[in-house]
Design a protein that fits this description.
The chain is an all-alpha fold.
C-alpha cells in the first residue's frame, strides 16, 4: 500500500505504515548478520571435509518438522540449530572440491557478499521504471559484450 502525495493510502485511510517499525532492530540485525557470516565461513572452511552426498532418503525432512508452523517467531538459536540439524543434513555439497557432477562449484566469498548487498536492496528489475540501475547495468554489460566481439 503506497501513500499518495497527501500521505493518505489509496483506500482513504491515514498511512498505516507511517509509524511501522521493523521487527528486528538495525543493531539486532547487525549482530545476526555477523553470526550468519560466521556460519558461512565455517561452512566454506569445512566443505572439503564433508561427505559430498547427504545420507538421506526422500521424505526424510517431514517427520522432523512440527505438524504446524509456529505461531510466534522462533528464537535465533533454535533456527540455527534447525538449520544445522535439519537443513544441512540434506545438502548436497556443490562447493566441495570432491564434487565432480553436473556443474562446477561456482560460488566464492565475493559473490556471497554481493548477494548479501543485492538482497538488502530487494530490487525488482523487470523494467527501467521499477529499477533504473538494473536496466542501466544490463544495457552497459550488453553493449560491452557486443563491442568485444
Amino acid at each position: 500500500m503506497g501513500s499518495g502525495e497527501d500521505g493518505v493510502a489509496p483506500d482513504g485511510n491515514a498511512d498505516a505504515l507511517a509509524d511501522y517499525e521493523h521487527p528486528v532492530s538495525i543493531e539486532k540485525f547487525r549482530k545476526l548478520g555477523y553470526d550468519v557470516v560466521d556460519m558461512i565461513c565455517d561452512y566454506m572452511s569445512s566443505a572439503k571435509q564433508r561427505h559430498v552426498m547427504p545420507d538421506v532418503q526422500p521424505g526424510f525432512l517431514r517427520p522432523q518438522l512440527p505438524q504446524q508452523a509456529p505461531q510466534l517467531p522462533e528464537p535465533w538459536q533454535a533456527i540455527k540449530q534447525d538449520f544445522h540439524d535439519k537443513i544441512m543434513r540434506g545438502v548436497l555439497h556443490w562447493q566441495s572440491p570432491h564434487f565432480f557432477a553436473w556443474f562446477a562449484g561456482n560460488t566464492s566469498a565475493p559473490s556471497i557478499l554481493a548477494e548479501m548487498l543485492i538482497a538488502s536492496l530487494n530490487m525488482v528489475g523487470f523494467s527501467w521504471q521499477s529499477s533504473p540501475i538494473s536496466t542501466e547495468l544490463e544495457m552497459v554489460s550488453h553493449a560491452k559484450h557486443h563491442s568485444s566481439r
